[in-house]
Amino acid sequence: GAVVSQHPSRVICKSGTSVKIECRSLDFQATTMFWYRQFPKQSLMLMATSNEGSKATYEQGVEKDKFLINHASLTLSTLTVTSAHPEDSSFYICSARTSGAFTDTQYFGPGTRLTVL
Amino acid sequence: AQSVTQLGSHVSVSEGALVLLRCNYSSSVPPYLFWYVQYPNQGLQLLLKYTTGATLVKGINGFEAEFKKSETSFHLTKPSAHMSDAAEYFCAVTRIGGYSTLTFGKGTMLLVSP
Protein backbone atom coordinates (compact mmCIF):
# COMPACT_ATOMS: atom_id res chain seq x y z
CA GLY A 1 0.00 0.00 0.00
CA ALA A 2 0.82 3.73 -0.01
CA VAL A 3 2.24 3.92 -3.50
CA VAL A 4 2.89 7.23 -5.20
CA SER A 5 3.70 7.49 -8.88
CA GLN A 6 5.14 10.31 -10.95
CA HIS A 7 5.00 10.91 -14.67
CA PRO A 8 7.14 11.38 -16.60
CA SER A 9 10.22 9.91 -14.96
CA ARG A 10 12.48 11.91 -17.21
CA VAL A 11 11.89 14.88 -19.49
CA ILE A 12 14.12 16.97 -21.68
CA CYS A 13 12.78 20.25 -23.04
CA LYS A 14 13.92 23.38 -24.75
CA SER A 15 14.38 26.64 -22.89
CA GLY A 16 11.17 28.67 -22.82
CA THR A 17 8.77 25.75 -22.94
CA SER A 18 6.50 24.55 -20.15
CA VAL A 19 6.62 21.12 -18.58
CA LYS A 20 3.92 19.38 -16.57
CA ILE A 21 4.73 16.70 -13.99
CA GLU A 22 2.00 14.52 -12.53
CA CYS A 23 1.96 12.99 -9.07
CA ARG A 24 -0.61 10.33 -8.24
CA SER A 25 -1.44 8.42 -5.09
CA LEU A 26 -2.39 4.98 -6.36
CA ASP A 27 -4.01 3.28 -3.40
CA PHE A 28 -4.97 6.01 -0.98
CA GLN A 29 -6.51 9.45 -0.94
CA ALA A 30 -3.95 12.17 -0.51
CA THR A 31 -5.42 15.21 1.17
CA THR A 32 -2.01 16.83 1.15
CA MET A 33 0.74 16.61 -1.42
CA PHE A 34 4.19 18.12 -1.33
CA TRP A 35 6.61 19.07 -4.07
CA TYR A 36 10.34 18.96 -3.51
CA ARG A 37 13.35 19.85 -5.56
CA GLN A 38 16.67 18.09 -5.20
CA PHE A 39 19.95 19.25 -6.67
CA PRO A 40 22.77 16.75 -7.23
CA LYS A 41 24.21 15.38 -4.02
CA GLN A 42 21.98 17.60 -1.91
CA SER A 43 18.97 17.15 0.32
CA LEU A 44 15.38 17.74 -0.62
CA MET A 45 14.13 21.30 -0.64
CA LEU A 46 10.42 21.76 -0.08
CA MET A 47 8.89 23.92 -2.78
CA ALA A 48 5.22 23.91 -1.89
CA THR A 49 2.43 22.17 -0.04
CA SER A 50 -0.90 21.60 -1.69
CA ASN A 51 -4.20 20.57 -0.19
CA GLU A 52 -6.94 19.17 -2.35
CA GLY A 53 -9.25 21.86 -3.61
CA SER A 54 -7.27 24.82 -2.31
CA LYS A 55 -4.35 26.94 -3.39
CA ALA A 56 -0.85 25.70 -2.79
CA THR A 57 1.33 27.19 -0.09
CA TYR A 58 4.75 28.05 -1.45
CA GLU A 59 7.98 28.16 0.51
CA GLN A 60 9.92 31.37 0.68
CA GLY A 61 11.89 32.03 -2.47
CA VAL A 62 9.80 29.77 -4.70
CA GLU A 63 8.08 31.64 -7.53
CA LYS A 64 4.44 30.62 -7.56
CA ASP A 65 3.94 32.00 -11.08
CA LYS A 66 6.76 29.87 -12.38
CA PHE A 67 5.92 26.66 -10.55
CA LEU A 68 2.18 26.19 -10.92
CA ILE A 69 0.66 23.56 -8.67
CA ASN A 70 -2.79 22.10 -9.03
CA HIS A 71 -4.32 19.57 -6.65
CA ALA A 72 -7.65 19.00 -8.30
CA SER A 73 -8.46 15.62 -6.82
CA LEU A 74 -7.57 13.46 -3.86
CA THR A 75 -5.27 11.34 -6.01
CA LEU A 76 -3.64 13.80 -8.38
CA SER A 77 -1.43 16.84 -8.11
CA THR A 78 0.43 18.47 -10.97
CA LEU A 79 3.46 20.72 -11.06
CA THR A 80 3.92 22.85 -14.16
CA VAL A 81 7.27 24.50 -14.71
CA THR A 82 6.46 27.46 -16.92
CA SER A 83 8.95 29.01 -19.33
CA ALA A 84 11.62 26.62 -18.18
CA HIS A 85 15.26 27.67 -18.19
CA PRO A 86 18.45 25.63 -17.75
CA GLU A 87 18.66 26.61 -14.09
CA ASP A 88 15.34 24.82 -13.54
CA SER A 89 17.01 21.54 -14.42
CA SER A 90 16.71 19.38 -11.34
CA PHE A 91 15.16 16.29 -9.80
CA TYR A 92 11.58 16.97 -8.74
CA ILE A 93 10.00 14.67 -6.18
CA CYS A 94 6.45 14.67 -4.90
CA SER A 95 5.08 13.12 -1.75
CA ALA A 96 1.61 12.48 -0.47
CA ARG A 97 0.01 12.24 2.92
CA THR A 98 -3.39 10.94 3.83
CA SER A 99 -5.79 12.14 6.48
CA GLY A 100 -6.54 8.67 7.75
CA ALA A 101 -4.57 6.38 10.00
CA PHE A 102 -1.19 7.31 8.58
CA THR A 103 -1.31 11.06 8.78
CA ASP A 104 2.20 11.15 10.15
CA THR A 105 3.93 9.74 7.11
CA GLN A 106 4.70 11.14 3.71
CA TYR A 107 5.02 8.66 0.87
CA PHE A 108 7.30 9.68 -1.93
CA GLY A 109 7.11 9.30 -5.66
CA PRO A 110 10.06 8.03 -7.71
CA GLY A 111 10.97 11.51 -8.93
CA THR A 112 11.15 13.29 -12.29
CA ARG A 113 14.45 14.31 -13.81
CA LEU A 114 13.99 17.58 -15.72
CA THR A 115 16.68 18.73 -18.12
CA VAL A 116 16.23 22.09 -19.82
CA LEU A 117 18.44 22.68 -22.82
CA ALA B 1 11.62 25.70 14.45
CA GLN B 2 13.05 22.31 13.71
CA SER B 3 16.35 21.17 12.31
CA VAL B 4 18.20 17.95 11.61
CA THR B 5 21.93 17.34 11.63
CA GLN B 6 23.41 14.27 10.05
CA LEU B 7 27.03 13.80 11.02
CA GLY B 8 29.15 12.72 8.11
CA SER B 9 28.19 13.23 4.49
CA HIS B 10 29.80 9.87 3.70
CA VAL B 11 30.16 6.71 5.76
CA SER B 12 32.18 3.76 4.50
CA VAL B 13 31.88 0.25 5.87
CA SER B 14 32.90 -3.22 4.81
CA GLU B 15 30.32 -5.82 3.94
CA GLY B 16 29.25 -7.54 7.13
CA ALA B 17 30.29 -4.66 9.37
CA LEU B 18 28.06 -2.62 11.65
CA VAL B 19 26.31 0.35 10.07
CA LEU B 20 25.83 3.47 12.19
CA LEU B 21 24.39 6.63 10.68
CA ARG B 22 24.02 9.53 13.05
CA CYS B 23 21.12 11.93 13.30
CA ASN B 24 20.52 14.68 15.84
CA TYR B 25 17.48 16.89 15.81
CA SER B 26 16.31 20.12 17.28
CA SER B 27 12.66 20.65 18.02
CA SER B 28 10.73 22.85 20.39
CA VAL B 29 7.90 20.34 20.52
CA PRO B 30 7.82 16.53 20.69
CA PRO B 31 8.98 15.26 17.31
CA TYR B 32 8.10 12.56 14.91
CA LEU B 33 11.30 11.17 13.39
CA PHE B 34 11.91 9.35 10.15
CA TRP B 35 14.67 7.67 8.19
CA TYR B 36 14.36 7.47 4.42
CA VAL B 37 16.65 5.78 1.89
CA GLN B 38 17.24 6.98 -1.65
CA TYR B 39 18.81 4.89 -4.37
CA PRO B 40 20.30 6.67 -7.40
CA ASN B 41 17.75 8.48 -9.54
CA GLN B 42 14.87 7.28 -7.39
CA GLY B 43 12.51 8.79 -4.86
CA LEU B 44 12.65 8.23 -1.13
CA GLN B 45 11.61 5.02 0.56
CA LEU B 46 10.58 5.02 4.20
CA LEU B 47 12.87 2.85 6.31
CA LEU B 48 11.32 3.43 9.70
CA LYS B 49 9.70 6.04 11.88
CA TYR B 50 9.25 7.00 15.49
CA THR B 51 6.00 8.59 16.56
CA THR B 52 5.15 7.56 20.09
CA GLY B 53 5.63 4.54 22.29
CA ALA B 54 8.64 2.24 22.11
CA THR B 55 11.80 4.21 21.53
CA LEU B 56 13.56 1.44 19.64
CA VAL B 57 11.94 1.09 16.27
CA LYS B 58 12.60 -1.56 13.69
CA GLY B 59 12.31 -0.94 9.99
CA ILE B 60 12.76 -2.68 6.72
CA ASN B 61 15.92 -4.37 5.49
CA GLY B 62 17.18 -5.06 9.01
CA PHE B 63 17.57 -1.41 10.03
CA GLU B 64 16.59 -0.04 13.40
CA ALA B 65 16.84 3.28 15.19
CA GLU B 66 16.53 4.42 18.78
CA PHE B 67 14.94 7.66 19.86
CA LYS B 68 16.91 9.18 22.73
CA LYS B 69 15.21 12.29 23.98
CA SER B 70 17.99 13.20 26.40
CA GLU B 71 20.50 13.18 23.57
CA THR B 72 18.08 14.52 20.93
CA SER B 73 19.27 11.71 18.71
CA PHE B 74 17.78 9.15 16.36
CA HIS B 75 20.73 7.15 15.06
CA LEU B 76 20.20 4.46 12.43
CA THR B 77 21.93 1.09 12.79
CA LYS B 78 22.18 -2.26 11.09
CA PRO B 79 24.24 -5.12 12.52
CA SER B 80 25.66 -6.35 9.23
CA ALA B 81 25.96 -4.30 6.06
CA HIS B 82 25.10 -5.70 2.65
CA MET B 83 26.30 -4.38 -0.66
CA SER B 84 22.69 -3.54 -1.50
CA ASP B 85 22.58 -1.09 1.42
CA ALA B 86 24.76 1.36 -0.47
CA ALA B 87 22.56 4.42 -0.91
CA GLU B 88 21.82 7.90 0.42
CA TYR B 89 20.07 8.04 3.78
CA PHE B 90 18.03 10.97 5.02
CA CYS B 91 16.86 11.67 8.55
CA ALA B 92 13.78 13.86 8.87
CA VAL B 93 11.68 15.41 11.61
CA THR B 94 8.20 16.76 11.83
CA ARG B 95 6.05 18.01 14.67
CA ILE B 96 4.07 15.50 16.68
CA GLY B 97 0.82 14.77 14.96
CA GLY B 98 2.56 14.96 11.65
CA TYR B 99 0.54 17.85 10.33
CA SER B 100 3.50 20.04 9.62
CA THR B 101 6.12 19.70 6.91
CA LEU B 102 9.15 17.45 7.04
CA THR B 103 12.54 18.93 7.72
CA PHE B 104 15.33 16.85 6.20
CA GLY B 105 18.94 16.47 7.10
CA LYS B 106 21.54 16.87 4.38
CA GLY B 107 21.86 13.15 3.91
CA THR B 108 24.57 10.56 4.44
CA MET B 109 25.92 8.46 1.62
CA LEU B 110 26.60 4.91 2.78
CA LEU B 111 29.37 3.17 0.87
CA VAL B 112 29.78 -0.59 1.29
CA SER B 113 32.95 -2.30 0.16
CA PRO B 114 33.44 -6.05 -0.39
Average pLDDT of chain A, rounded to a whole number, is 90
Order of helices and strands of chain B: EEEEEEEEEEEE
State which percent range the strand residues of chain B make up: over 45%
Based on CA atoms alone, the radius of gyration of chain B comes out at 13 Å
The end-to-end span of chain B amounts to 41 Å
Determine the structural class of chain B based on helices, strands and strand pairing.
mainly beta
Number of strands of chain B: 12
**Major β-sheet annotation of chain B:** 6 strands, mixed
Number of helices of chain A: 0
**Main structural class of chain A:** mainly beta
Main sheet overview of chain A: 7 strands, mixed
Mean pLDDT of chain B: 91
The unreliable regions of chain A are: none
Distance N terminus to C terminus of chain A?
A: 37 Å
Percent of residues of chain B in helical segments? under 10%
C-alpha Rg of chain A, in Å?
13 Å
Oligomer: heterodimer
Which pair of protein chains has the largest interface, and what are the residue counts?
A-B, 22 and 22 residues
Task: Provide structural commentary.
The complex is a heterodimer of chains A (117) and B (114). Chain A has 117 residues and is mainly β. Chain A is 0% helix and 51% strand. Chain A has strands at residues 4-7, 10-13, 19-25, 32-38, 44-51, 57-58, 67-73, 76-81, 90-97, 107-108, 112-116. In chain A, strand 4 (32-38) and strand 5 form a beta hairpin. The radius of gyration of chain A is 13 Å and the shape is globular. The mean pLDDT of chain A is 90. With 114 residues, chain B is mainly β. Chain B is built from no helices and twelve strands. In chain B, strands 2, 5, 6, 10, 11 and 12 form a six-stranded mixed beta sheet that branches. In chain B, strand 7 (56-58) and strand 8 form a beta hairpin. Chain B starts with a strand and ends with a strand. Classes of the chains: A mainly beta (117), B mainly beta (114). The A-B interface holds A 4, 6, 34, 42-44, 46, 49, 91, 93, 95, 97, 103-111, 113 and B 32, 34, 36, 41-46, 49, 51, 90, 94, 97-99, 101-102, 104-107.
